Amino acid sequence: MAEPAVDYAAVFQALPGAVALVTPQLIFADANAEFLRLRGLPREQLVGRFLPEDRPEKDPAEPLLLRVLASLRRALDTGERSVVALQRYDMEDPDQPGVWHERYFNMTNIPVFGPDGRVTLLLHRVEDVTELIRTREVALALQEAMLPAPRPVGRHSTAVRYRPAAEALNVAGDWYDLVDLPGDRIAVAVGDVVGHGLSAAGVMGQLRSALTAASLVPEGPARALEVLGLYARTIDGAENTTVATAFIDWENHTITYSSAGHPPPALLQRDGTVEFLDQATDPPLAARPQHGPRIQAVAAFREGAVLVLYTDGLIERRGEDIDTGLARLADSLARHQADDPETLADAVLADLIPPGDATDDTALVIVRL
């Protein structure tokens, strides 16, 4: 049976998003209708144009053009796709000359190989993600409004940080909380809601408020997570949320802690040794078919030690096991042991998440004991 003829021109026009073909000499060879619409040019004015000249005079996006050219050349040299992620481009309004609007794009450059194995064309795909960025900004604002502002907790020295993922289109549901308890005690918690965007931020706000109230129950952190788990079963999107909470008692120099599937808190001693509090870990919230009691454990501390709670964005990296991330955290804490909580928080983030390299949101709480 003969193979059906393929209309590759029709396929090219049907490709999702704005797509152009560029020669190794960086000359436009073709473009689909969406790319032409985005550029505001008819095909005959674009094809044959040298890509570095494809910009109006005094174009405010010239730095972006340089990044795009570098990406194209990288795809040519390596034979591998190259991505230019989340780039801002100020575009002139076609109906209002001189009026510019902020837009955001993802760009992907994919090499196309000829029979001899050499790159003969580059497929240049542009995706407009402006609306996703705007939704993310709304979610970030909502999330920041629901997270407590840094404040003194009793007479104790603390630091909190929240860092969203770099170049991510969606906000995650990471959160933290510190609650004054009767006596010389406080409750500290961090959590991570599964999912992203406004829905995750909304679930995060509900769970954080519920845990704040549950932490005031005298029985301790395990009971607080039991109550939170029951509540999570009533909220769409709350299942499999991970949480770690610790009750710090300065009079007795103890930390009573419990974890619902969350990475273990770190206890940094004054001599620089780090202990991970991993003796009271249960499944995430609402993950078990039947609700059941949770466990808690107690760790002793000496004055001057540091307790660190965090979400998985601080330690997890693609292709690594969690022990590698925990070791990296322990090393950072030990090297900065003498720092005050504010300085220590910044140092840990700088060590574990270089600027622009965060692949997941991160919440971090540090308490000097």
What do you see in this structure?
The structure is a single chain. The chain folds into two domains: 8-128, Beta-Lactamase; 133-368, Phosphatase 2c, domain 1 (4-Layer Sandwich), CATH 3.60.40.10. It has helices at 8-14, 33-39, 43-46, 62-78, 130-146, 197-214, 221-232, 322-335, 341-352, and strands at 18-22, 28-31, 82-92, 100-113, 119-128, 158-163, 172-181, 185-196, 242-249, 254-260, 266-268, 274-276, 281-282, 297-300, 306-310, 362-368. It is 29% helix and 30% strand. With 369 residues, the protein is an alpha+beta fold. A hairpin with a 3-residue loop joins strand 7 (172-181) and strand 8. Strands 7, 8, 9, 10, 13 and 14 form a six-stranded mixed sheet that branches. A five-stranded antiparallel sheet has the order 2-1-5-4-3, sandwiched between helices. It is built from nine helices and 16 strands. The model has no long low-confidence stretch (mean pLDDT 81).
Average pLDDT, rounded to a whole number, is 81
Overall number of structural domains: 2
Report the CATH architecture of the largest domain: 4-Layer Sandwich
- The sequence of SSEs as H and E is HEEHHHEEEHEEEHHEEEEEEEHHE
* Radius of gyration over C-alpha positions, nearest whole angstrom: 26 Å
Query: What is the CATH first-level class name of the largest domain?
Result: Alpha Beta
Low-confidence stretches: none
Helix content: 25-40%
Q: Quick one: how many beta strands?
A: 16
SSE class: alpha+beta
The CATH homology group name of the largest domain: PPM-type phosphatase domain
Q: Tally the helices.
A: 9
Query: Under CATH, the topology of the largest domain is which?
Result: Phosphatase 2c, domain 1
The global form is: elongated
Main beta-sheet strand count, sense and barrel state: 6 strands, mixed
Q: What percentage of the residues does DSSP assign to strands (E)? A: 25-35%
Distance between the termini: 78 Å
